[in-house]
Amino acid sequence: FSGRNGLDCIIELIARAPQHLRSRGHLIIEFGHGQAEGVRQLVERSAQLTLIGIRPDLQSIPRVAVIARA
After folding, report:
1. Residue 12 above 90 pLDDT?
2. DSSP the chain
3. What pLDDT score was predicted for residue 1?
4. Whole-prediction pTM value?
């Protein structure tokens, strides 16, 4: 469904987010167990997005990325 590493949908969201977000607008993405580092790297590669933080779920597993448009 979302490619070999499970990030294909997130790759598309991050690629398209800048054209749909206002300046300083936010994108909040939930991702799967073990995908935090991949999501972090994808956002860091985008010149127009900034990773505000990665938040854990109730079991303290990194689960949600908060991303802002610069």
Report:
1. yes
2. ---TTS-HHHHHHHHHHHHHSPTT-EEEEE--TT-HHHHHHHHHT-TTEEEEEEEE-TTS-EEEEEEEE-
3. 67
4. 0.90
